[in-house]
Amino acid sequence: MQGKKFVVILAAVLALCPLLSGCGGETETIPVTSLRIGKDGSVTSDIVEDFGRENYAVESLEAMIREEAERYNTGSSPNAVALSSVAMSDTEDGKVLVTMQYASSADYMEFNGVELFYGTPAEAEAAGFKLNVELIGASDAGSRIGREEMLDMKDAHILIVRQSAQVSQVVLPEKILYMSEGTLLAGNKTATLPGPDEDADITWMGELTYILTK
Predict the structure, then answer these.
(1) Which residue intervals of the chain bear CATH 3.30.70?
(2) What is the pLDDT of residues 80-125, one digit of tens each?
(3) Contact predicate 184/192, CB 8 Å
(4) Angstrom distance (rounded) from CA 181 to CA 187
(5) Which of 101, 96, 167, 114 is nearest to 1 (CA)?
(6) Fewer CB within 10 Å, N or C, the chain?
(7) 8 A C-beta contact, residue 179 and residue 185
(8) Burial, 195: exposed, middle or buried (Cβ in 10 Å; 0-12, 13-18, 19+)?
């Protein structure tokens, strides 16, 4: 589903799925919708949604996702996007978890139509992302850096992600050093992103969030 917000559409579909069965086995419960970035730049997307009242079979949901992934991979590479699992939560009633795998942040961005970048600050600028922002220290809010300081940190990596109602947390492979104001540190490598004022607004899209790691 190139050029379209697949995560938004998937969230809407999942909201209509109360009776998912045959979900492919037990899986670890992810408490919130999140993105996990691998050291190789790969992306794991864990989408958590409530059930609605309509009856949709899990087979139809899986088929829809796999069809979209295969369509994308035809124009990209065979392993660019893949569905890992669709499962009912075994610890949280009324929750379903969909886990997607992306070979790179570029594949995630193209497939979902939502900005996502992971790489060095220099690579970010080469990809068209502007670094004319001020970031605050993760452990010291009084410490702030700007574009020049970021570019000087040759070994650092930066995550740039568009705030959305579908992504609550990001997990990085390295320690978080600096981040955009409004981002909350949830662990050395985990951050909680700002969200919409109304939880029900699944179409909300906010600003870009920048997180610098090393």
Answers:
(1) 1-112
(2) 999 999 876 666 666 778 899 999 999 999 999 999 999 999 999 9
(3) yes
(4) 16
(5) 114
(6) C
(7) yes
(8) middle
What would be the CATH architecture of the domain defined by 1-112? 2-Layer Sandwich (3.30)
Q: What is the DSSP letter of 161?
A: E
Residue in the block written with tokens 């109602």: 165
Spatial separation of the C-alpha atoms in residues 13 and 64, rounded to whole Å: 10
Provide the whole-model pTM: 0.84
For 124, phi then psi, to 5°, come to -65, -45
Amino acid in position 178: Y
The tokens of 169 are what?
Answer: 């947390």
CA-derived radius of gyration, the chain: 18
Task: Show Cβ contacts of residue 184 under 8 Å, excluding neighbours closer than 6 positions.
Answer: 191, 192
Sequence-ordered alpha helix ranges (H) in 41-104: 58-74
